[in-house]
Amino acid sequence: MSTLSAFKITNFLEQIDNPYMFFVITDKEGRIINVNQTFLDLIEAKKEDVENKHILDVIPDSKLPAILETGRPNKADIWSFKGQNAVVNRLPIWENGEIIGAIGHGLFLDISAAKILVEKLQEKEKEFNIMLEGLIESPHMGYAIVDKEGFITAINQTYLELLGLKKESTIGKHILDVTSCSKLHEVLQTGRIDKADIYNIKGQDIVVNRFPIQKEGEIIGAICQSIFLDLSGVNILMEKLKETENELNIYKDEVCRIYQAKWQFEDLIGESDMFHEVKTMAQQLANTTSTVLITGESGTGKELFAQAIHNASSRRAGPFIRINCAALPENLLESELFGYEEGAFTGAKKGGKPGKFELAKGGTVFLDEIGDMPLNMQTKLLSVLQERVIERVGGTEPIPINVRVIAATNQNLEQMVKNKQFRSDLYYRLNVVRLNIPPLRKRTEDLPLLVEVLMARINRRLRTRVAKCSKEAIKLLTGYSWPGNVRELENLLERAINLANANNEYCIRLSHLPSLIEKNDISQTATSDTLPEIIIPDNFGEKLSDTIEGIEKKMILQALSKTGGNKTKTAKLLGIHNSALYRKLSKYGLD
Q1: Which residue, 432, 452, 439, is CA-closest to 274?
Q2: C-alpha angle with apex 11: 7 to 16, nearest 5 degrees?
Q3: Are 370 and 326 in contact (CB under 8 A)?
C-alpha cells in the first residue's frame, strides 16, 4: 500500500478512534497494517503482536480476505469473538480502480446490547415475513416466484386456484411444467420487465407484471404478479383497453383516409418502350425501402408514379402524405414537416401538433417540388434522412420516424448543385434510385390510348357521354408538342367534351379544339369531317392570325350557305354556341 494511502487512513483513524469503535486495516495481501486500541483490547493483544501479520493468523474466521478477493462490501454483520459481540462492516479500499486493501470496522457491544440488537433485527425480519405472507396470500393478487433456473420457490393460493393445482404439486417444479405458456423463463434470460401484459390462463384474461429478482447485479430469480384477478375488474380493464384500441384505430384510419394514395400501376397508361421501361423499374422499386427521386417535366405524372409505388409496397396500409415544398411559406415549412410543441410560438395550438413525418408513420412521405425547398430546410431534412429522427419546433425530445421518402422535381438538380442552390449532400441522399418520367412528346404513340382512357375518366366525372374522338382530331393531337404533357392533354380533352356535350354531340371533332387549332400549322385545320374543303385565297395576310380569321370567315359563310341562312343550324354545324356565332358575324360584318 502506498505511503500516501497509509497516511490518509491513519489520519482518518486518529480522528475517529474511540473506545466504542474498532478498526483493522489490511493491505491487498491481507497483512495487517493498522489497528486501533479498541480492536487490540477486544483480541487482548499488543500492536507489535499483530502488525504485518496475516489477518487469518490473528482472526482465523475473518472475512476480510473474501472482501479483498471479490471487492464486495459486507455490511451490518454480527461478529462474535472470545465471547465478545459486535456489529461489523467490512469494505474494500480502492485506489485508481484497484483494490489496495480492506477495512473492518464495527461497534463493540456487550452481550446484553448484542442480544437487544439481534432481537430487534429478528423482530423486523418477522414483521417483514408477516407482511410478505399477507401480501402473497391476498385474494386480490396472484404471485409465482421462481429461482434463477426457473423452478418455482413460492406461489400463493390465489394463483393455485386459478391454475386448479395444489401447492405440493407445484413447489420445486419448473414453471413451464406447471404453466406451459409462462414467460418467466424469458425474464430470467433477458432481465426485461413486463408491465401490464395480457396473459390468458384457461380462457381467462388477466393482467400481469413480470420482473427479475436481482442481488448484487445478478439475476437470482423472477416473479410474476397479477394486478388483480377480480373478474369484474378484469372486464372493466379489458373494456378500457378495447375502447382505447378502437379510438387509436379510428385515428389511424382517419389519417389513412385523408392521406390516401389513389393511383395504382394499372392506372399508368402507356405502351411505348420508353414508358414501359420506366413503369417496370418503378414496380421493382415498390418492393424496396430505398429513397426514390422522380424527375420529369411538369405534368408528366410524377405524383401518380409515387402513389403507385406506395400502393404496391409493404407500406400500402399506411398513409401517403404529399408535401408541396414550393407552396408552403418558408416560416411554416419546418412546423408542417416536423410539428411543434405547445408554446413554441405565438398561436401554437394547446398540446402542440404532430408534423407530416409523424402522421406518415408506417407510410410514405412524398416531397413534391423538392428543388424549391429553402437551403436551411434542406439541412434539417438531410439530418432527418440520416438519423431517422425528428425534433418538433420548440421540443427537446427526439422522435423516431418510420417512413419512406419519395421526392420529385421538374428542375435540374445537378445544375442547382453547381450553382449552390441545392445542397450536394442532400442531392446524393435523395438520388439513391432515380426515375425519369418521359415527356408526352417523346411517346406520342401512347396518345390514342391516353385519349381513350382519359375521355372515359372525364365522362364518369362529368356524367357526360362523349365517347369518341375523330381521326382528324387524333391527328391534330398527335402533331402537337404538348409542353404541359399529360396534364395539358387532360385539361384540353375536358374542354372539348364540355363543348361537344353542350351541342349534344358524342364525338370530339376539330371544332371542339379551337385553342389547339390556333397553335398548329394551317395545313392541319382542314375540316373534312364537318364542312367541304376550303380553298385559301392568295391575297390572305401573311400573319397566322390573319390567316386563321380568313379561314374562320370563310367557314361561317359556307355554313350559312349550307343552312340557308339559319343561324341556329349554322352555329350547330360549326360546333359553337349561338351567342358566339352572333359575335363572329358582327366581327366580320356578316350580320
Answers
A1: 439
A2: 150
A3: no
| Backbone φ, ψ for residue 425 (5° rounding) | -70, -35
SS3 413: helix
Global pTM exceeds 0.85: no
- Specify the amino acid at residue 377: M
Domains of the chain: 3-115 (3.30.450.20), 137-231 (3.30.450.20), 265-438 (3.40.50.300), 442-530 (1.10.8.60), 532-591 (1.10.10.60)
Residue 18 has pLDDT above 50, yes or no: yes
Residues 6 or more apart whose Cβ sits within 8 Å of residue 318: 256, 360, 361, 362, 363, 364
pLDDT confidence bin for 12, thresholds 50/70/90: low
Torsion of CA 507, 508, 510, 515, to 10 degrees: 160
Q: What's the pLDDT at 521? A: 45
Residue 486's CB is within 10 A of a number of other CB atoms, namely 22
pLDDT of residue 415: 93
User: By the 8 A CB rule, do 268 and 305 touch?
Assistant: yes
Q: At what angle do helices 567-574 and 544-562 cross, to 10 degrees?
A: 130
Alpha carbons within 13 angstroms on the beta-carbon side of residue 372 total: 15
Q: Who's near 244: CB < 8 A, 6+ residues apart?
A: none
Residue type at position 178: V
Return all residues near 535 (Cβ < 8 A) that are at least 6 apart.
none
CB burial of residue 464 (10 Å; 0-12, 13-18, 19+): middle
Compute φ and ψ for 6, nearest 5 degrees: -60, -40
End-to-end Cα, the chain, rounded Å: 124
- Cα 346 to the chain's mean position, in Å? 28
Say how far apart CA 226 and CA 385 lie, in whole Å: 43
- Return the number of other C-beta atoms located less than 10 Å from residue 446's C-beta: 19
Q: What is the 3-state secondary structure (H, E, C) of 194-246?
A: EEEEEEEECCEEEEEEEEEEEECCEEEEEEEEECCCCHHHHHHHHHHHHHHHH
> Quick one: how many helices (H) and strands (E) in the chain?
24, 21
CA distances from residue 83 to 43, 79, 108, 113 in whole angstroms, order as listed: 10, 10, 12, 13
Q: 9 is written with which cell numbers?
A: 487512513
Q: Is 42 exposed, middle or buried (0-12, 13-18, 19+ CB in 10 A)?
A: buried
Identify which has the larger pLDDT, 574 or 80.
574
Are the beta carbons of 367 and 325 closer than 8 angstroms?
Answer: yes
Find, among 155, 151, 158, 178, the residue nearest to 167 by Cα: 155
Q: What is the 3-state secondary structure (H, E, C) of 328-342?
A: CCHHHHHHHHHEECC
